[in-house]
Fold this sequence. Notes:
By secondary structure, the protein is α+β, with helices and mostly antiparallel strands.
Amino acid sequence: MPELPEVETIVRSLAPRLTGRRILSAIFSSKLVTRGGLKKVAARLAGKTILSLKRHGKHIVFQLDSGVLTIHLGMTGKLLLDGAATPYTRGIFRLDRSTLLYDDVRQFGRIDFSEQLPERVERLGPDALVIEFDQFYALLKARKARIKSLLLNQSVLSGMGNIYTDEALFRARIHPTTNSGRLGRVRAQNLHRAMVEVLTIAIASKGSSISDYVDADGASGSFQLQHLVYGRADQPCSKCGTPIRRIVVAQRGTHYCPRCQRA
DNA sequence: TCAAATGTTTGATC
DNA sequence: GGATCAAACATTTG
């Protein structure tokens, strides 16, 4: 479900409401999601106070008065403040003034407690929303992966997922299989600009709700209404009318305009 | 019944 | 070491 704009939307809405709150207790029910041990993680969280809540790529990092709670939503994870439990509720955080639920149908998400910021988060590449052009260009030049694969690689650049990668490449008129090292400065600038623009507008639209995504209050985003290629296979390109094509790149469904984005 | 789904990891292979 | 690819994880939906 969640790429950078969706996670950012959740964090922005939860941060002011959770900062300073105390975790009275936690209970988990999925060994897949809470791999550190259901009871062990719960015991370590009980009594801790939330000092801050931040987004690192697609991870949500809670700095506690001692230790760190890290949540990754996987494909179908949701954090719901004072929502109703469902058969897919995998975690319940009872706080001093509210209840935070973690719902996840497919259980690809992760909930971890650690003393320090986890390795997984430390190793993330620079954030796609704030990376400067020079650093972005250096990343492209240092590799020769297909541009779509590179943008999806969280250790190179963090935050981009399947939707926003397709949307950014279309807006920059770059074919998804283009070798990143062969992109010239101008085309790289177009991509950098398109990426930041798409992410920024998507955040302003509170994310894309395709099938699962809702924010912490259960509300849908609206950026899906502005998708130009993602999920639009066979529909006419908004720019030239050529049918949008769907191929598989980096093992993900990939949508592009064969005329606007030449190989 | 088959394919696809907002993500990541792991192992094999070149 | 890099990069690609397939498979796996678990479940729903069209």
